[in-house]
Amino acid sequence: MSNSWDLYTRLIEDYSPSLSSGGIDGDRIARRLHEISKIGLTEDGGSRRVGFSQEEKQAKTLVKGWMKELGLSITEDGAGNVFGRLEGKNPSLPAIVSGSHLDSVPNGGHFDGPLGVLSSLELVEAWKENGYQPTRPYEVAIFSDEEGSRFNSGLTGSRAMTGDVDMELQQGLVDQDGNSFERVMSEVGLSAESFAGAARNLNEVASFVEVHIEQGKKLDEQNLPVGIVSGIAGPSWLEVEFYGNAGHAGNTPMTDRQDALVAAGGFISRIHSLPGQVSDSAVATVGKLHVYPNGINVIPGKVALHVDIRDIHEDTRTELTQLIIEEAEKTSQNYGVRCSHKQTLQVTPVPIQSDIKQYLRQAMEQHQIPATELPSGAGHDALIIGSHLPVAMLFVKSKDGVSHNPEEWSSLNDCVQGVHVLKAYVESIDQA
């Protein structure tokens, strides 16, 4: 695969060279996406750069080289987050930070994360060519372990930067190979102690902006290259258990059963209709379920399931959670079983501020792109940072909405248009 791999040629073959303007160079972006894609390339043509791996570190080193060529001052914190800084005319002002991540899921694509990093870096390339210096300092950020594939606990670098870390929990993490968090960190030149000290003085940052592939189909269906993220949904996880009576599948009459799985099935079938009752952006999913005793000839006596509930607004997410709890209790009564429920995770959603969305709309209009808004159901580093600072997000069209898969694809035309919008946005808020 490595000998025949050529992401650059695939990207450039249908590229419109007229989009390379104002110092933004699609050819350069394509070459850099290709160079990053070779690090951790899988046999399926996917990407394997899990968090705190040598591959993630190698990708960071590659990008740091490009930062140095641009004359950026580079710092790396104790969590491995990298910041390339361009001084502004007034270096005492808080910085505008833009970036994403370079780690991937075990067999992911080549745009999720790297596109955001390279888009942010391309701004500096354009400014350098045009002799432009922003008023504020501008930083290109690479956050560590956004995906969380190593420890099933993501957004690690941005949590470290903002201080949103439970160190006791973090140090207790173990990867699938039995390696402790401390050991994994030491293998890439970091430590639990350095990680704990990575929290940044957030007064040094004015705002954060992230470019990312959509990971959904809305832009693809509307044939739009770029969209404005209206908010980032925070997940709320609800564990629900149904308790019936286990019994012999052959000897227990159908009229004398307390089947926990039948009750759970009835409950799950109702969840699909509930999000639309509270919000257009709310969703709910049952993706994990355990049946006890899980015997082929035994009536299930207990079912434990998890409901993932998301919305970009906390009040409607809370309302949806209550509806789901009420549905679980009603279902248990209807089927003659008992139920219990408890919250296991609750992350505050981040709606994007209206003034920021207005700047984004103006940037889109400046490049004759219809300004459409869409929510992000997935978590991003902007979700964590948005709990502390003003954030903006731009989505770039993803073919068929595919993500976390070797088939993940965003055309170079769409990627470059995303950079143009990012540049217009950053310049507008820098001058505001």
Instruction: Count every helix, treating DSSP H or I runs of 4 or more residues as helices.
Output: 14
CATH-assigned homologous superfamily of the largest domain: Zn peptidases
Rounded to an integer in angstroms, the radius of gyration calculated over CA atoms is: 24 Å
- Average of the residue pLDDT scores: 96
| CATH topology grouping of the largest domain | Aminopeptidase
What's the structural domain tally? 2
Give the % helix.
25-40%
Question: What is the terminal-to-terminal distance?
Answer: 48 Å
What is the number of strand segments?
15
Structural class: alpha/beta
Any overview of this molecule?
Strands 1, 2, 3, 4, 5, 6, 13, 14 and 15 form a nine-stranded mixed β-sheet that branches. A four-stranded antiparallel β-sheet has the order 9-11-7-12. It has a two-stranded antiparallel sheet with strand order 8-10. It has two domains: 310 residues, 3-Layer(aba) Sandwich (Aminopeptidase), CATH 3.40.630; 113 residues, Alpha-Beta Plaits. The longest helix is centred in the C-terminal third of the chain and has 22 residues. It is 35% helix and 22% strand. It is globular, with a radius of gyration of 24 Å. It is of the alpha/beta class and 432 residues long. α2 runs antiparallel to α4, α10 packs antiparallel against α11 and α12 packs across α14. α4 links the parallel β3 and β4. The mean pLDDT is 96.
